[in-house]
Structure formats: C-alpha cells, structure tokens
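ESCALATION

Customer reports they have been waiting on this structure for their group meeting. Please prioritize. Original submission:
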Amino acid sequence: VQLQASGGGLVQPGGSLRLSCTASGATLNTYSMGWFRQAPGKEREFVAGIRPNGGSVYYGDSVKGRFIISRENVKNSAYLQMNSLKPEDTAVYYCAAGRAITSTIRDPRAYYYWGQGTQVTVSS
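Update from on-call: job pushed to the front of the queue and completed.
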C-alpha cells in the first residue's frame, strides 16, 4: 500500500488548508486513517483519526474545533480540513493507515502504512 499526501503549503495565520491522502495498491475501507505531524526538534504528534466507516473521529487537543478529518472510501482517500491555522501548526503532516481501534488510534505504532509527508507552514 502506498499513501500519497498532498495539499500542504504556506498560509497566513487564520487561513485554511485542505490536505488529501490517496492510497494505491489496496483499498482503505477496512483501515483506520490517521493524520500525524512533526515539527523540527519535536516528536511526532497525533492530529486526527477516523475509523473505517467514518462514523468515529478523534482529534488531538491542540487542533480540536479547528481541524476536520473525513474520508471517501469510494475514492480511497482521506482528508484533513485545517481552519484557523496558527504558527504552531507548522510541521510536516503525515497520513497513515492501519488497524487502529479506539484505544490505539492516537498511537503511531498502530499504523502500518505511511505517506511521505507534506509541509505546512503558517507564517505571515
């Protein structure tokens, strides 16, 4: 399975970006999907996760209320809508797929497949 993340870029504080993650080599409809981010000098951080049927979503505390995760299984894709962006959101964002369940969806070790990352920079 290969995951391709896209949609990153430079945005001003308060702006929005939409990240996409598209899979090839397998269908994603039985996998949980997650978004993680890593800023320079910091550990990888859970951003958002969504169960296979899209019925349950989870967010990291720092993005709750600003980011929205979604998926379209027919397109083999997941998305991260990021609103009200802050400079501290600057990081490389990674999408991931795995058999994560509710208790492990925030744990990067629960994911088998990872995208290459897309840079998000929030700056004026």
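Sent to customer with the following note: The chain has a mean pLDDT of 95.
Escalation resolved.
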